[in-house]
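pls design
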C-alpha cells in the first residue's frame, strides 16, 4: 500500500506547534528559537517526513537554484570548472541552471533574464562578456570566476604567479627564446597577470622573449589554423633554436602539441611547452603536458562558499547588505610533465 504523506498538520499535531509555526520553520527558520527549530527537526526524523520541494518553492519563492554562465564548453578549463561546480551540490544543496554564452552579450542578457524568471537565488559567472557593474545591478548575489570583478565578488587564480612559474620553468629548460601566446586582453582581466608575470621574469633575468598576442579563435578548426600559422612563423624566424612556449591554456597547448606530432611524429627537441589550467586534457594528451595548475575544485568550492553566504544573508529577517565585494585569490601549483625538460 502507498504510504501516507506526512503533512504540516501531522507535524503540528506531533510537536504541539501551530501549522503557521511549522511553515515558518521551512520558510523563515531564524524567526524561531533554536530550541523550537530542534524540536521540529527531531519530529521530521521521527515522522520520516519527505519534503515536497515544489510546494516549498511555491510557498516561499525560494528555488535553491543558482544560475551559471560559462563562455563555452569547448575549452577544457570551463567544462572541468562546471563539473566541479556541479559537484558542490552535496555540500551546499543548490541546483544549477547552466548556459553557455559564446561571447555574445545580447545572448547572455537573454539568458540572465531567463534565469531571473526562474527566481534563481544567485549566479556564478565565468564569461567575461558582460561588465561586472551591470551584473551587480541585477540585485542577486553574483560571484565571478577568472573575469573582471570590480563590482562583484570573485575567486581567481594568482595569474601573476602562474606567469612567473611558467617563465621560470622554461628558463630552466635551457630554451634559447621564451614565447608567450595569449589574447590581447585588458589589464582588468585576471588573466592579464599571466602576461605580466611572464614578461617581468624575462626582463629581470635578461631572457630573450616574445609575446604573441592574438585571437586564436573559438573552435578547434580556428585554433588549429592559427596555431599552425604561429608555428610556421617561429620556424622561419627561429630555425634550430630551442623555443619555450607558454600557451594561455591547456586546450591550446594540446592543439600545439598535436600539430607538432602531425608534422614530426614526435615533440621536437627544439620545442618545450607549458599550458595553464591543469584541466584533464593536460594529462590525457599524447604526451602529458606541463602546466600551471589552477586548483579548479578549490576555486569552485570557494565560489559556492562566498555565494551561499550571501544567499543565506538575504533570507534573514534583517539582512545586512554586502559592504564591498569579496575577492579570493587561489595560488597555482606548477605541474611538471613530459613537454618540458
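designed seq:
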Amino acid at each position: 500500500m502507498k504510504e501516507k504523506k506526512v503533512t504540516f498538520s501531522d507535524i503540528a499535531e506531533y510537536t504541539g506547534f501551530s501549522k503557521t509555526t511549522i511553515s515558518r520553520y521551512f520558510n523563515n527558520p531564524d524567526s524561531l528559537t533554536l530550541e523550537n527549530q530542534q524540536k521540529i527537526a527531531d519530529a521530521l526524523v521521527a515522522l520520516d517526513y519527505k519534503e515536497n520541494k515544489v510546494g516549498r518553492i511555491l510557498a516561499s519563492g525560494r528555488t535553491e537554484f543558482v544560475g551559471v554562465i560559462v563562455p563555452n564548453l569547448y575549452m577544457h578549463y570551463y567544462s572541468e570548472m562546471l563539473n566541479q561546480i556541479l559537484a558542490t551540490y552535496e555540500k551546499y544543496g543548490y541546483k544549477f541552471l547552466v548556459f553557455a554564452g559564446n561571447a555574445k552579450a545580447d545572448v547572455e542578457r537573454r539568458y540572465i533574464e531567463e534565469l531571473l524568471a526562474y527566481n534563481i537565488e544567485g549566479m556564478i559567472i565565468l564569461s567575461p562578456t558582460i561588465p561586472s557593474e551591470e551584473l551587480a545591478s541585477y540585485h542577486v548575489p553574483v560571484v565571478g570566476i577568472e573575469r573582471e570583478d570590480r563590482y562583484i565578488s570573485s575567486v581567481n587564480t594568482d595569474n601573476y604567479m602562474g606567469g612567473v612559474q611558467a617563465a621560470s620553468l622554461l628558463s630552466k629548460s635551457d630554451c634559447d627564446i621564451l614565447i608567450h601566446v595569449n589574447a590581447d586582453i585588458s589589464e582588468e582581466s585576471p588573466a592579464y597577470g599571466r602576461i605580466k608575470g611572464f614578461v617581468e621574469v624575462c626582463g629581470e633575468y635578461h631572457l630573450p622573449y616574445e609575446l604573441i598576442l592574438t585571437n586564436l579563435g573559438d573552435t578547434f578548426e580556428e585554433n588549429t589554423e592559427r596555431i599552425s600559422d604561429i608555428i610556421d612563423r617561429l620556424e622561419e624566424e627561429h630555425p634550430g633554436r630551442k623555443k619555450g612556449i607558454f600557451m594561455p591554456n591547456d586546450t591550446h597547448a594540446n592543439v600545439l602539441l598535436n600539430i607538432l606530432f602531425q608534422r614530426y611524429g614526435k615533440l621536437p627537441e627544439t620545442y618545450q611547452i607549458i599550458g595553464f589550467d591543469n584541466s584533464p586534457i593536460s594529462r590525457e594528451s599524447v604526451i602529458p603536458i606541463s602546466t600551471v595548475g589552477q586548483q579548479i575544485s578549490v576555486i569552485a568550492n570557494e565560489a559556492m562558499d562566498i555565494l551561499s553566504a550571501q544567499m543565506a544573508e538575504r533570507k534573514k529577517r534583517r539582512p545586512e547588505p554586502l559592504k564591498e565585494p569579496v575577492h579570493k585569490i587561489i595560488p597555482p601549483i606548477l605541474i611538471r610533465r613530459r613537454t618540458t625538460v
